[in-house]
Amino acid sequence: MSLRSALVPSLLALTPLAAWSAVEISDDVELKVSMRLQTRIEMASASDAAGNDFDIWEPGSVSEDDVNQINMMIRRARLYLKGKYKDDLKFNLTFMADELGANDDKDPTGVDVRYAWIAKEIKNGDLKHTVLFGLNKPWFVSADTDSSSKMLFATNRQTAQYNHGRQVLLSYKVSSPMFTFGVNLSEDEDAAGTGTSTDNNDLEMSFRVETGFSEENTLSKRQESFLGKDGFGHLLGFGFGTRTDNSDVADDDGHDTFVVDYNLHMDQLSLNADLISRSNDDDTDVLSILVQAGWAIPGDDMIIEPALRLALIDNDTDNDDEQTVYTEEGGASGMYIDAGVNLYFDGHNNKLNLGLVSYSPEDGDGDATVFRVQHQLNF
Predict the structure, then answer these.
(1) Is the pLDDT at 311 greater than 50, yes or no?
(2) Less CB within 10 Å around the terminal CB: N or C of the chain?
């Protein structure tokens, strides 16, 4: 199946739905339909640990003479079906067709379900209790759960890799105007990253709490860019997650993860900071730190927002000589420096991101420089 045959009919079929905003199915049911389309061009220059030319999109599968330096793809194609039944039951069914045309997937095969959950809300004064069951990300590592629509860069923060995987889970959350607390419980269905269950006895549990310390200063929702709007707000978050290990499967180890993160909005400034510490059952420890900030400059026709990011990723603190390489969107041990600028034509609904990332490993010659241009359209 070609990219054209896979993508064009799907988008044409969805065009009538994209015009919907909110559809009242009955007196009790309301449905909202939306779409997200992120188109991207990447250009990379990278080396492996020995200094040879390296393909970040197809590592180890091509010869040095066949290294790809340009990658054009549909990074995210999403269809969101969200709604509510009466006033206290919400649902989300989201379909995705991500990385269409990417160098490691030139022949896209279909559409996957990204989210499928139902949530019951109970309000008691200023408190709101929410019980959710279904396919979702655990509310644990904010770098992974923050909206991909409102990011400062085309890629996730490198600390997103430490969240527990998107899977069927049971979660509970209680929120007030000043704080939110949540707990998540799931069966680990893909511990080794193989796409199949490795041990049905492995469980993941995580907790998270975040606060702005006062009602007037607590952000109503986290996001990486606030578009330079006037005002002040912040959120300090703490999380703990654990995964049991009840099998002898290789690369299927348990771990305990601690998270501290901070999100700040101060007029033109948007800032995120992450600290991740993980202790693995195989005696390797993780310590990763990330700070990023954007400064929005409003204009008559658009908003311009320069942004910087620094990430120090260490996936094995006992080994200071890790010879790692940059692949796809990063995550290996090393130092990442991102610089970019966002052009907002209609807020986050229509924006263009231009970004450059420079990667240096702890040891070896696996340096990489990647330039990305990504356009986003929400409707």
Answers:
(1) yes
(2) N
